[in-house]
Amino acid sequence: MSDLHALNEAINKKAGRKLFPSIAVGLTLLGLVIASLAFQRVLFLPLAIAAIIRGVWELGQALDRANIEISVPTISFCAVAIMTSAWIKDVTGLAVATAISIPFLLISGLPKGHHNFVKNATATVFATIYLPFLAGFLIVLAKPDDGLARVMTFVIVVGCNDTFGYIFGVLLGKHKLAPAISPKKTWEGLIGSLIFSILGGGLMLSLLFEKHWLVGAAIGVAAVFTATCGDLIESAIKRDLDLKDMGVILPGHGGMLDRLDSVLLSAPIIWAILTLVG
């Protein structure tokens, strides 16, 4: 038992997060996603909206440290509208709702006056695109009759990126990928992500969609690129704001944004590839 504890502590120190709580939280979130899609797909919508609203709140708290103000209630209202529109009218609804929300959000900032208007307005638009708009592609993925298969493909390739990047980084990581932004990320971790995301994508496309495994491999490669960049983008935000984590709601992960970082940028590209291949 003491050996297991020592191993866990060594992994925690090298990886920068607690292993077992991280696994437990990840499996719980995965279970909620599968249960909602398997039981009644529309339940995935409020689940995703709740996660994004929490993310908006965390981003608002973080930006406040730099004296940047975004209206969390107003952006949350728009998030509900954007993601619900994505469920009702797919990508068309997502695009139109976002296009309407942005001027609405800019106008809603006028009563506060001109002081810091550009800074706050820019952050508001960024928050709207980064969170509800990108997350809207998850909603579009989940809506069709084969929504469970589509989302599970998404979960597998992104999960392979995160999990095997983590494992390879802990066990073999020596060469830093982006030390100025994310000191824990290594090239060895990236290679692990790439190998297993390709395998995971190829397997899912072959089994669930009867497509050539190379299509799945393409999804795997794209997911590694977008998920890694998404993680680095969020790390850059945290370093700029002098934060370790965006929150503490998810043990072993930090905040909701710390869990969504790789998901948000991956959703549009995986939706696009699955749509192109039918």
Explained architecture:
The protein has 278 residues and is mainly α. The chain folds into 2 domains: 40-143, no CATH class; 146-278, no CATH class. 78% of the residues lie in helices and 3% in strands. It contains 9 helices and 2 strands. It has helices spanning 2-15, 19-39, 44-64, 72-108, 117-142, 147-172, 187-208, 213-240, 256-276, and strands at residues 176-178, 182-186. A two-stranded antiparallel ribbon has the order 1-2. Strand 1 and strand 2 (182-186) form a beta hairpin. Helix 6 runs antiparallel to helix 7 (187-208) and helix 7 (187-208) crosses helix 8. It is globular and about 55 Å long. The N and C termini lie far apart (50 Å). The model has no long low-confidence stretch (mean pLDDT 86).
List the helices and strands and how they pair.
Layout: H1 2-15, H2 19-39, H3 44-64, H4 72-108, H5 117-142, H6 147-172, E1 176-178, E2 182-186, H7 187-208, H8 213-240, H9 256-276
Antiparallel strand pairs: 1-2
Number of helices: 9
| Terminal Cα span | 50 Å
Overall geometric form: globular
Determine the structural class based on helices, strands and strand pairing: mainly alpha
> What is the chain-wise order of helices and strands?
HHHHHHEEHHH
Strand content: under 5%
Which runs of at least 5 residues are low in confidence (pLDDT < 50)?
Answer: none
Q: What topology, given as strand order, has the largest sheet?
A: 1-2
- Tell me the domain tally: 2
Biggest β-sheet strands, sense, barrel: 2 strands, antiparallel
The residue fraction in helices comes out at over 70%
Number of strands: 2
- The chain-level mean pLDDT equals 86
Please state the CA-atom Rg, rounded to the nearest Å.
Answer: 19 Å
